[in-house]
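Ligand: adenosine-5'-diphosphate. Inputs:
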Amino acid sequence: MKQFQTESKRLLELMINSIYTRKEVFLRELISNASDALDKLAFKALTDSSVGLDRGDLYVKVEIDKEARILTISDNGIGMTAEELERNLGIIAKSGSLEFKSGLEQDENRDAADIIGQFGVGFYSAFMVAERVEVLSKAFGSETANLWVSSGIDGYDIEPAEKAGHGTTITLCIKPDTDEETYSEYLETYRLRELIKKYSDYIRYPIKMDVTHTNTEGGESREHTETETINSMLPIWRRPKAEVSDEEREQFYRAKFYDTEKPISSLTINAEGLVSFTALLFVPRKAPYNYYTRDFRPGLELYSDGVLIMDRCADLLPECFRFVRGVTDTGDLTLNISRETLQHDRQLRVIARNLEKRVKDELKRLMTEAPEDYAEFWTAFGTQLKYGVISDFGAKKELLSELLMFRSAGLKKLISLREYTDAMADGQKYIYYAFGDETRSNPRTESILDTGYDVICLEEDTDEFVVQTLTTFDGKEFRSVNSDDLELPDSAETKEELEKLSAEYKDLLEFARNTLNGRVAEARISLNLKGAPSYITTRGYVTLELERYFKSLPNGEGNQMKAERVLEINAEHPAFDALKSAYADDKTKAEIIVKLMLYRALLAADVEIESPTEFAELLEHLMVS
Ligand code: ADP
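Predicted complex:
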């Protein structure tokens, strides 16, 4: 008996004792090898007329003998000589296989399909399900056949044998069932059929199986067996776009991605260039139940010329578009992806860049051409896009900014930032934003709306980070309605009036600031507070909302982040008259009013007050005075 080369032996050991899930991929690997062998012969026939062979004669056949627990996969491809059997099945000479091995060793819990798919160790995966493997092969043009036999790590034998035509027949003696694993499933026609459909549907050669049908006629059941081609050979994404109906695409989507609803959008891509590929992508209508959890596995199916290489190739899409489902197929990876990781990364990156742009364009198209669909999409995945803006220090903000939607306080509907800036008045400098939904009353928002400017509503906690990360849209900065300087186009009169009042009550304002003793940076007169006696605005980057967010972080990490507060006092409110007269006659009372103005503003802004005790005392004062 011959010994396997050391590396092969180790890999084989891993396969035999494999604890990996989805051992079923062995079938894909063997069929894929058979398809390669058919390709090689087809190529030979193309370049050598003496071969005298038609591509249509080539096929793969899968057969089972349930009683004997035998599964065979045969092809009439190029076949192997004795030397080739020795070289190809006894030694692992390929870098990919070595990487595969180290991949397995690093993370034994990984799904076999992912790793095998990435590195294509193919043949040895047969040992995940078989206790003994025989390879009977006759090279094209050769007179003799050979039989390679192995029951695992002990080694293998090669001896001359008889075989009718060229090609290879792989015979697997399926392992007995154990408590954990029912290997018998690989002896069931329906199961094999399912696996062929799942993994090898688009192999360009027919994969044949003998299928027995039972006809019941007149109470008598008769069986007849037919050889059927299981795979459809031509995937939907390879067919010209115009020949595939929307209905078919929808069916395909639902069946493949287990969605009960039709997708919001489907996207057919045929790209030629550095890397040529076809893709069929879908934007789902609803987020899967586990979408916002760690259980959700994003990624596209990756095919290499019709052979499924990876179930969920996450590298094909940026994180922010992880909701997209679909398939990508490229011939340009065929001989690289499974073997050279570096190359595979580079080519995938080219595809990924292209897909990212296409998905963005499609979403933009939906936004303008199918606003209702887009609104539905936004409900399902808007949060994802917003996270996308914030992640990686805003790396994707350019890509995503045009796709964002916010409620408009003025229009009471969802609008894009583009709609906002398009509707901006001459001289309007900022994109104004307020916190909470549009029903939350806010005198500042109201006065901005009065000016004729719109205000967008930040409804989620993270929204403020979104606008802070964007910093600008269309060259316009964002500004909180609580900012101390809104730069509204006050009429000349108002401006004059404000200056006059500020000068007149300079002492009173200074008194207020001192009374509040460091709690506000400034106290000042305001004329745009609607019915509110007082209001808190902030200066600089940290707003009250950010302050609150940072405070909520564990370990008080963000306690240092404090908003610089400005107390605005409404000169048109009766409370101001009360303050004025108290300031003239009764300084203690004036202090109470100033403090109450601060508390009143903080409470209205939903800010946690620092000294509830003091607030309670002030209220008591009011009760008795
Ligand atoms: P890979 O397919 O990644 O090269 P495998 O371990 O699956 O690795 O196969 C090793 C080699 O054995 C293949 O490259 C091929 O040359 C040969 N081989 C496997 N199966 C067949 C087959 N059915 N017909 C001809 N050659 C085969």
